[in-house]
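Structure in, sequence out. Go:
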């Protein structure tokens, strides 16, 4: 690893260290820990959306469907079910460990991402947006009306918490908020590292090539449908993992998990933080995820959305490409100024 690459990783490592120490700085306050956990879960989903929106240029306004599918698959795997399908066929599933449900949620959403990608990436622009919105609405209606399986508006309750197997200690059930906080932080760090490796790989260069100049990328032999579909699979799998964490943390889910406003929140996190950057969704997620916590004591939810809009507009005026690119540009401008005022002769400067 070269020195410049290490330098680029310093902000992420510093943020990770700060987040790891944050619960102790807050005195393990349960209210603030709950806000941080839910913010972290939505931030993971925003990171997965950034893989599509930021690095391939494809806007998915139905991304919450993968989040909700992951939540329901993981919950139903852990709770078990007994449903009657077409033709009188009855399917009975006994409860499995929540960790298995987490894995199945990732696999199921990856399969859904492949299906949506194969169907929709033959078109671009508004057509893709319409396909993703339609898919999200279909999934929401299924969750709402298939009462025998999902309990519909009555919600699935009693979802068991996730357990973590530790060498020498066996399986530890993650019941406390502090345990769930570090679980979300670990999954978020893993997703961040995976996205970083993907973006730096040949596959990542293909994604960016399709975003910047699709015609040129196609002329160089890049398979657009295959590349975008694989990006959709990975993105959906990460969103499904976030949904599974959400279900096992709250231990109750209903069709409101598919609310369109959550997708809007993800887009705001990505765009406000800086789409197409690794840290952008994380910074945007922390700002726009914790902003309601600060505003809740002083204004109603409707007014909070107005503040969201004003903050996002302000960020776009000051930093049109988002917070992270804006800060990077600001630091880059200061460095030449500092170098020019340095007493070191130009010929010996690094």
């Amino acid at each position: 690893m070269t020195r410049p690459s290490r330098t680029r990783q310093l902000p992420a490592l510093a943020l990770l260290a700060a987040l790891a120490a944050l619960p102790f700085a807050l005195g393990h306050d349960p209210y603030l820990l709950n806000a941080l956990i839910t913010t972290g879960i939505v931030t993971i989903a925003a990171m997965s959306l950034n893989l599509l929106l930021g690095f391939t240029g494809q806007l998915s306004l139905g991304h919450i469907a993968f989040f909700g599918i992951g939540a329901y698959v993981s919950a139903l795997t852990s709770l078990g079910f007994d449903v009657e399908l077409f033709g009188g066929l009855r399917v009975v599933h006994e409860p499995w460990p929540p960790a298995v449900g987490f894995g199945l949620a990732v696999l199921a959403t990856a399969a859904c991402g492949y299906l949506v990608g194969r169907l929709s990436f033959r078109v671009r622009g508004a057509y893709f947006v319409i396909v993703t919105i339609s898919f999200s609405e279909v999934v929401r209606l299924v969750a709402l009306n298939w009462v025998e399986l999902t309990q519909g508006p009555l919600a699935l309750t009693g979802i068991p918490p996730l357990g973590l197997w530790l060498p020498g200690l066996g399986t530890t059930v993650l019941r406390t908020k502090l345990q769930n906080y570090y679980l979300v932080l670990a999954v978020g760090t893993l997703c961040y590292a995976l996205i970083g490796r993907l973006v730096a790989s040949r596959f990542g260069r293909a994604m960016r090539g399709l975003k910047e100049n699709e015609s040129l990328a196609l002329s160089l032999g890049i398979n657009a449908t295959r590349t975008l579909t694989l990006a959709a699979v990975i993105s959906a799998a990460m969103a499904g993992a976030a949904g599974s964490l959400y279900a096992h943390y709250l231990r109750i889910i209903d069709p409101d998990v598919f609310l369109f406003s959550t997708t809007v929140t993800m887009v705001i996190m990505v765009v406000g933080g800086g789409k197409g950057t690794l840290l952008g969704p994380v910074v945007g997620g922390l700002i726009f995820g914790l902003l309601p916590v600060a505003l809740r004591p002083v204004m109603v939810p409707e007014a909070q959305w107005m503040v969201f809009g004003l903050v996002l507009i302000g960020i776009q005026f000051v930093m049109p490409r988002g917070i992270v690119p804006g800060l990077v540009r600001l630091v880059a401008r200061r460095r030449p100024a500092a170098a020019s005022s340095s007493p070191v002769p130009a010929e010996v400067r690094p």
